[in-house]
Design goal:
It is a single chain. By secondary structure, the chain is of the alpha/beta class. Helix content is 53%, strand content 14%. It has an 8-stranded parallel barrel, surrounded by 8 helices. α2 runs parallel beside α3, α4 runs parallel beside α6 and α6 packs parallel to α7. It is globular.
């Protein structure tokens, strides 16, 4: 049974994993594979583009809650009617590649209008803070979003220009370090749960939670793979790493209590 409560519970336990198909990914076959891989890999949610057919495809291929991403408030309002379980203002990474930029004020305005349009829908809403703006502005935006009443704040990293010719693993690691650093600062400034996205892998996901995240968003590490089997394997590796971490922490707390 599909329920956002799955994601909320995992988020409260600080082990939620959202698998991102991509804000500009309108390939139904790929989205179906990503959705099935998320289901098989025991993720907490999937995130897809704001398109009626894509939302339908995702919901037909997973029982997990479906987040829908866009930077257009009116499209997000439509997504509610199309069956979105949660709305996401953001996942900007794919848009940067097209030369688009986002300021803190722009993101707040989109979030404000989206919240206004959907205030009667009582739908879970997440907003991405652009990693390209100074951390001081990111923190200020996070505080304003908390006052606005958003349910979740997502951080991101931006690809360093100095690594434009580096390996894929180097790029992912550098981007992950940036978004984790942003998570650490934002999580200290607000009580709204924080989700870390951009460059997250099985190796860096535990670091995000250690920095204060309640969830991670994983995109290119999964959606760029060629087969559903490969996608599911990566999802399971990430989820397994976090479950192992939780088991270790539980054991440590138990030992401390006994002592």
């Amino acid at each position: 049974m599909r329920s956002l409560e799955i994601f909320k519970r995992h988020m409260k336990e600080k082990r939620a994993v959202k698998i991102i198909a991509g804000i500009n990914n309108f390939d139904e076959q790929n989205v179906a594979s990503v959705a099935r891989a998320a289901q098989i890999g025991l993720a907490s949610a999937v995130d897809v583009a704001c398109d009626e057919k894509i939302i339908k495809t995702a919901k037909e291929n997973t029982a997990l809650p479906v987040f829908v991403s866009s930077v257009d408030p009116f499209s997000l309002k439509k997504a509610v009617k199309w069956g979105a379980d949660a709305l996401e203002v953001g996942n900007f990474d794919a848009l940067y590649a097209k030369g688009k930029t986002f300021t803190a004020d722009m993101v707040y305005d989109v979030a404000l209008e989206t919240m206004d349009l959907t205030q009667n829908d009582e739908i879970f809403t997440c907003v991405t803070i652009p990693g390209c703006v100074p951390i001081e502005e990111q923190i200020e935006l996070a505080k304003k979003l908390e006052l606005l009443g958003v349910d979740l704040i997502q951080t991101e990293g931006v690809k360093p220009s100095t690594l434009s010719n580096g390996s894929s693993s180097d790029k992912l690691l550098s981007i992950a370090h940036m978004t984790i650093a942003n998570t650490m600062e934002i999580a200290k400034a607000v009580s709204t749960p924080v989700m870390t996205a951009s460059g997250i892998t099985a190796q860096t996901a535990p670091l995000a939670f250690a920095a204060g995240a309640s969830a991670v968003g994983v995109g290119s590490a999964v959606n760029k793979l060629r087969t559903q089997i490969a996608m599911a394997q990566v999802v399971r590796e990430i989820v397994g790493t976090l479950r192992y971490k939780n088991l270790v922490e539980t054991e440590e707390r138990t030992r401390t209590a006994v002592l």
